[in-house]
Amino acid sequence: MSKKHQGNENTKNKQLNLFRVDDRGKKMTTNQSLKVSEDEFSLKAGERGPTLMEDFHFREKMTHFDHERIPERVVHARGFAAHGEFQVYESMRKYTKAKFLQDPTVKTPVFVRFSTVVGSRGSAETVRDVRGFATKFYTEEGNYDLVGNNIPVFFIQDAIKFPDLVHAIKPEPHNEIPQAASAHDTFWDFVANNQETAHMVMWLMSDRAIPRSFRMMEGFGVHTFRLVNEQGEAFFAKFHWKPKLGTHSLVWDEAQKIAGDDPDFHRRDLWENIEKGNYPEFELGVQIIREEDEFMFDFDILDATKIWPEEIVPVHLIGKMTLNRNVDNVFAETEQVAFHPGHVVPGIDFTNDPLLQGRLFSYTDTQLIRLGGPNFHEIPINRPVCPFHNNQRDGYHRQTINQGKVSYHRNSLAGNTPTPVPEEEGGFKHYQEKVEGRKIRSRSESFKDHFSQATLFWNSMTKPEKEHIIDAFSFELGMVKSESVRQQVVDMFAHVSLPLATTVAKNIGVRAPKGGGSHVTTSSPALSQEYTKKSAATRKVAVIITDGFNGSEVGFVLNELVKRGMQPEIISESLGKIQGSDGTLLEVNYTFLTADSVIFDAVYVVRGSSKHKKFNKDAGLFIYEAFSHYKPIGATHEGKQWLESNEMGQSPGVVMADNLNLFVEEFTKSVAHHRFWER
């Protein structure tokens, strides 16, 4: 790697270092650097007298505290983030002149924020919801923001309806209930009366809406963008993030219990794995359509409620992103980061997707209200790694100290600088698309098919995935008080799948739809999680064990699980150490009071010689819940007899073997499989 490229890689970290402060071991001062002699008592007129106005330290401290909070995001308020780097696999010069997509030796710093859409900052993270997946690339040409979701389509086609959507899905205004949930009247009333939502709702009711981890979910740019090369040729493109660990989900009962057991489940998972060196990796993929092929499909490629099926338009993996450093301060970085789909670099441009066009207007407004003014780009986490020069001045929180008297263009006093940059020297120039037409409030006829791709999604699901979608509809609509709304939704989704709608109708107490059905018979295997990559790496394994275990054999199994990338955690009756029959000691990580099966991916049952009824009861409940959530379960020693006596021993995904090498191999395969729906 060249010195220049090494410099580009380190610039962002050095830049952030300028603003990092470690207060450990330091003497206390005010914000003006005045040393403070007392921080326990305010200045008073006598020991029992009133506090005096001249106590500047008290006033500074309290005033700062009173102003610590900024408005949370209207949507995507609940989020967590990490730093990392991106490298392209090979030059994309054929399609784009964007420099960060040219040289495989260049590491581009990135900052990624994951989020839920609906809930407030304090809401649980495992709710049924869309997840945000926003990436800021700090390129040598300026910041590029890919602001997407973990679902490739959206509820609406035109951004003018976004306020309506959010008003409908947020807690109902008369009682501010429910929090972080779509299972209520106003959301489903919106769905039934805005049928362009059909495709997105199918994704929302699927397992995609309850991901196992931020590390195990796909990301999508959602919109159709343009790539432009040096020759001025343009290509339509969609962006994908493919997790190296595969795409995996929770089950609904599990997601609800985690929300109570650990509302920070997803951020804790991301934080802990980065701290352990289990760096999340995502491959960047692109789908590309030539301009001349824009109208050759049975869907409009500019419609944000439509996918480009991967079997028709393949996804080319062009690079890899690695998240390798946690934030130092959540507020300064995660809360103050400002994403904007309009932050682009030469070689990446927009299309006439009406949802994208509206987002280009709204995001700047959002940052102005949240971050206090037009200088949000000067906050350290938002600063580009390359310098910026223009005639913009002043405003709230200005940090740049501009020199000289000139702040306008054109001028002679500063030699007409800063000077616009020609396109051939790297200046951004919009693609010269030919546009003509009458001003009209309407949308293309090609946007009016709302059900074909919703049916494609349904057809692409496996039997268990379809059952989960039916259960999700039944739960969500079962919480809707209005029978009229429930009926409208069932009648609407009869156009997606008549069997789906008929089953849901029975479950929620409305009449079966009188008509419906779909002519679509095609499917897209890429939409099913059944065919995703499956790996045991980084999976958390609960080890149920107590005193009297066989130390050497258990030690062998635990070491082998770690070698294969799993994370075993010891669970027993109390914290401290437990002792094996040979004197081996193991440190207990959790008790049954501090851990539940829902926060683990698999269970390894050793048991030991305990005859305590409480241990047997607690262990039994723990294991049975994991079993009911279709998770892998392994057992050796006394654990085998325990599973057999509870009639779990012959079930799929339950591994018992006397040969420890065989046990480790089979258990690893089961952990990688993730769920055993055939139980």
From TrEMBL:
Heme binds at residues 73, 113, 162, 359, 363, 370. Belongs to the catalase family. HPII subfamily. This is Catalase. It comes from Oceanobacillus limi. It catalyses: 2 H2O2 = O2 + 2 H2O. Decomposes hydrogen peroxide into water and oxygen; serves to protect cells from the toxic effects of hydrogen peroxide. CDD domains: catalase_clade_2 (cd08155), GATase1_catalase (cd03132). InterPro entries: Catalase, Catalase_AS, Catalase_clade2, Catalase_clade2_helical, Catalase_core, Catalase_haem_BS, Catalase_immune_responsive, Catalase_large_C. The keyword Iron applies. Gene3D superfamilies: 1.20.1370.20, 3.40.50.880, Catalase core domain. One of its GO terms (molecular function) is catalase activity.
